[in-house]
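Sample A.
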Amino acid sequence: MVGDKGPILATVIPTLNEEKYIGSCLNSLINQSLDSLKFVVIILDGGSTDKTTDIVKHYTEKSKEIAGPEIILLNNPGRYVAEARNIALDNLPNSVSLMVELIGHCTIPQDHLEKRLEIWKNLVEESNGNIAALGVKVLPSEENKNMIEIWIESALSSRFGSGSGQFENFSGTSKTKVPAFCLHSRRAVESVNGWDSNFITSQDSDLSMRLISEGYDLYRTDETFVNMVKRSSFTSWLKMGYRYGFWRTKINQKHRTRISKREFLPWFGFLITIGLMILGNQFWFVPLVMYSLVLLVEGFNFSLKWRNFSLLLGLPLCLISLHTTFSLGLLMGYFRKGKASNDR
């Protein structure tokens, strides 16, 4: 065990080649308003070949100098997120009852952990106490962005690109099936045997579904948030869309109640268009024209809202590519076993 007494909360961060962002992430953690004795930061590195671990060690010493939280660096031989979180679960101090799941390319506001605990306490008092998780909103990073990153941010902010997962726009504090960046009850996670390492992606969605099936309640709130770096190149955007679609199929196969008709709309539109063409219908192109017009209108609206006219074409391009790669991923998920991606 890492320790036997002290903190009540652990922030768990899997890393792999995060040298560009991990410093900002840790800086936002060691400057939290929450008493530093109440939480510990556990970094689980999956074999970084850049300067990630050196930066973590630097912040470990820096945190000691300013009487910040303890930062612990552990090795993650399994490399991926599910394995990392299970290792953290096995190494938590006995005093820790709550876990916050973060990633190396995100930051949090100064009162984030304090606010989380406050909301959690209120929810426990107002409910039957059978709460397993509390998620938060995911907002754009505060880093300077290139044009492609702005396009990607707009696509994930659009109602046609956000879905019902970590990028969904919502308001208030309420129950959900898909909380993002959760504060988890250690007891609840241990009761379902932690994260399933068969999921290289979507391991959190799988955990949420298993917690729900065991009778736990999951919540999310907009009272605090995580700033997350998305994708910075169009290639990584394409890979992300495919990977998310592929692993969504794996989630759907294991948890039938997670299936959403909305995810299959691009396939429905494609098949309708092909069907009309085969039947020789002179209006076969209407679904395609309607789809294009909707995306162009969305691009126009965002270009005005964000005052960036490159979104006129950039947003529709990102949405088309997302719908295409995600749909291909959904299909291939039925025929292939998953393997690790190389895009982050």
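Sample B.
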Amino acid sequence: MKAIVFKKYGNPSVLQMAELEKPVPKPGAVLVKIHATSVTAEDPKMRSFDHPPLLKLPVGLMFGFRKPKQPVLGIEFSGVVEAIGSKVKSYQVNDQVFGYTGLSFGAYAEYKCLPENALMHLKPQNLAFTEAATMVNGPLSALAYLKKKGKIEKGHHVLIYGASGSVGTAAVQLAKYFGAHVTGVCSTKNIELVKSIGANEVIDYTKEYFIDTDKRYDIVFDTVGKTSMKECMNLLTPNGKYLLTEFGLRHMLAAMYTSLFRRKKVVIAASNFYWEKEDLVFLKGLAEKGHYKPVVDRYFPLADVAEAHTYVSSGRKVGNVAVVVCGDEHEGRAGSLMKAVADT
């Protein structure tokens, strides 16, 4: 099978096409023919071993310090079940699925074996494979922060910083679904997009500072790690929560302190610890009922994954970047952001 591998850490050029042996499912596993995957913001960090100091030791121990133990990246996917193990009961051959590979990675390949109980579910019927492949990392992260950690409720006022990113576009749609009044913060070029996916108000950070307001929010969700903790805490209602996907030691200490002694909370989490299969079932339902639409910025063929990494690392990505592994979906040949959100 074809796969993109990397044998050393470095720039995108370390990603190379290779032929690997096609896996065979064990009795309790399924073999998925992958149609699409994605390049998340975390993938370039794994490729280059560019992690915050607090994470370098644990990441190195798990995945290798000098060279990667897992040569095939890719964490979210969509595809078709091609074969099942003798003990598998939840899936059948030809089932269309989407999901998360976990710490085994491996979605930058034509095939992937996963245990039957993996974080995987039947694909939303109304989504293309390229769209479904982006329905995991961003949406599950946003769901974990907003619902499981932030305890979002109907009527809450929520500010989402980085509203045009992968987690941000998911957070806007989910917060709107939960009945919140949503304020998104993004650049000028993404204002109409953020409005189109449900934001009640949008602040253009290139023209005004979102802190300069008398408004107070029940949740301030920084999806990109670029806000000031002190300033954002001042924006909160008395029982408000400041949610952070990117955090350091001082944020960890603040989270512990506020959890014990303050009504306003700093909330951090390794969100994937909170992901469950039931969440994929929930997201599938939202997508099929028209309450959620993945935002896909660009589409790349598998052979151009290095180019996709370069684009993601540039910081210009809006929503998600999908990678077509097999098939001839129109999204794999030419894609546009406006098409991705036209039906939202």
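B remarks: The two ends are 36 Å apart (CA to CA). Residues 137-149 form the longest helix (13 residues).
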